Amino acid sequence: MINSGSDKAGGSKEHVLVCLSSSPTNRRIIYEASELAKAFNADFTALYVNNAQEDALPYEEEIRLQNNIRYAEDNGATITTVIGENISFQIAEFARISGVTKIVIGRSNTSRYHFWQWQTVTDQLISIAGDIDIYIIPDSKTEIKTGHNWKFAEQIIPTWKDLLITALLLIGMTGLGICFSNLGFTESNIITVYILGVLISSILTRSHLCSLISSFCSVLLFNYFFTEPRLTFHAYEPGYSVTFFIMLIAALLTGSLAYRLKDNAGESARAAFRTKVLFDTNQLLQKSRTVDEVLSVTANQVILLLNCDVIIYPVNGDRLENGYMYSKDNDNCKEISLEESETEVLNWVLKNKKRAGANTKVFSKAKNLYLAIRINGTIYGIMGIVVDRIFSSFEYSIIVSILGECALALENIKNEKAKEEAALIAQNEKLRANLLRTISHDLRTPLTSISGNASNLLYHYAVLDDDTREQIFSDIYDESEWLIRLVENLLSVTRIENGEMQITKTPEVLDDVIDEAMKHIDRNKTEHSITVKKPVDIVIAEMDAKLIIQVIINIVNNAIKYTQKDSEIIIEYGSSDKDVIISISDNGPGMDDQVKAHAFDMFYTGSNMVADSKKSMGLGLALCKSVVEAHGGRIEIKNNNPSGCIFTFNLKKGDVILDE
Asked: Which domains, and CATH codes, for the chain?
């Protein structure tokens, strides 16, 4: 093992990088790197550099590469793919950006395939990344990028179409050169015409051999038609040998660069598309607010990337739920149950949080490729991809990134839900604290009054005259009635807020409901003028009569409490096409806008109480709002000209049912 570079300062986090390839011996390098990472307790990353030719990997090479990637994953590596032509530069640049402290590669005897570069990839990496520890596994068979010779051999063999295009271009350039010669152009112009032909041939053909053929034939044709003696392959001028050599080199370079630019342009277009898919996925997931939306976005983006059908099985706790099939042919998804033949592989993925199924070594006979949607050890679902081909390493890295984005979005939704639940719990705790604080404060006064009056009756009953005893009895009754109303409001509010109150709506005659409510109005109603204006026709509303009676009682008692003596309180009701409208008005001092904005808030009592009124918990109007809204209605406060307030709420109109 060879080491290059200096040791890192103690205390800094070590980061080991291993280079992936499709080489059969790459597993040994991965194993050595994983052992090194364990020894240093370091982060472990496996990097694959995908050059412009990556999609042309032969089937056997692609399978071996995928196996090596899975082996690195099994050994705890984080898989990363980058695109670049200069392999050593891409490795060194990634190491610099990612804070890599140690690089593990195999010794490669393969040089760069440019004929003007003789250094091997390993030697180039050592010269570029001299400040990083580089561990080289001595294995002459190991190559960072195997399969290149295969791909080059496949690209040498031209098709008949390529040969025809090359021949036509040579004929055309020769004809154009003859025209230039007849017009008196110099030989340098004709050489440029042939180089142009080589460039066009490189662009229009797929085989690199065509560029080579075009280059040699251009030199021969130039010698045959345009040098003295013409129509022979001899040349009188001794300097023509140099001209021919330079022309050949220029043609070869031009063709090679043209092919390279064409390949890079194609790969850049594919990479741009895949990157756009990942970027769009991130944007769409940020806009998603529900689990269904997140899963739908993820499935559609994977379909867009791979053009394959996708199945997603959500995970609820430790249990898989029914899946959702997303088809590439339509935008609709359908729910599907777990297939018995796929259950075993799905449970394995759920348990191990790793991929399995088609094109893998684990359950390779499964119908689909299954990948876990997970983050930080938590699995939120399993995606099944209907496989019809081998995915490239770059495609797989994009899939993993999309699934990571999906898991992050699902975790954010989970956290938001947890925050809402925590906020609700905090609100309930605050409600309980307010209730306890307010009850302990507000119950003390009436209980003290009841206790004191009862004590007077107990010890001084005989010496008290009838008027005094009657007043004491009246005070005890008033205080106990206030306590009863307070407890009823308190219980009703807490049941509604917790969703425990069952509302049973039946058609009720509003005349009877209001008459019953008037029987339970505050005893101080004799000090006020309360008028009920009944319509001519019978009004029937859908309601829970007991709760609506409590609403009317609370609003009227509120008017009695906050208006002066001899004030006028009017109860009116009528019906429209669909609703029954009830209004309760008074001519008291009214409310300012600030008080109206908080009148229905719990524990809000306002600041306009009259001097002889009791302290209130501020639950009555809050209960009214909760009850009316639970009935599907709406309650509001308006000003009553010239003074006072009007409380208005509506209920659904009921139908008259005649029972013969």
From this structure: 2-147 (3.40.50.620), 157-265 (no CATH), 290-416 (3.30.450.40), 444-497 (no CATH), 506-652 (3.30.565.10)
Question: How many CB atoms sit inside 10 A of residue 253's CB?
Answer: 14
Tokens of 214: 């075009």
**Is 193 in contact with 178 (CB distance < 8 Å)?**
no
The backbone torsions φ and ψ at residue 45, rounded to the nearest 5 degrees and listed phi first, read -125, 140
CA distance to 104, 107, 138, 144, per residue, from 141 (Å): 16, 8, 9, 10
| Tokens encoding 90 | 């891409």
CB 495 within 8 A of CB 547: no
Residues 323/336, Cβ–Cβ less than 8 Å: yes
Whether residue 417 is predicted with pLDDT greater than 70 in this model: the reply is yes
If one compares 279 and 311, the residue with the highest pLDDT of the two is 311
Q: pTM of the full predicted structure?
A: 0.50
Residue 588 Rama label (left phi>0; alpha psi -120 to 50; beta) = beta
Query: What pLDDT, in 10s, does the model give residues 5-20?
Result: 444 444 467 899 998 8
Q: First CA to last CA across the chain, in angstroms?
A: 102
Burial of 625: CB neighbours in 10 Å, binned 0-12, 13-18, 19+: buried
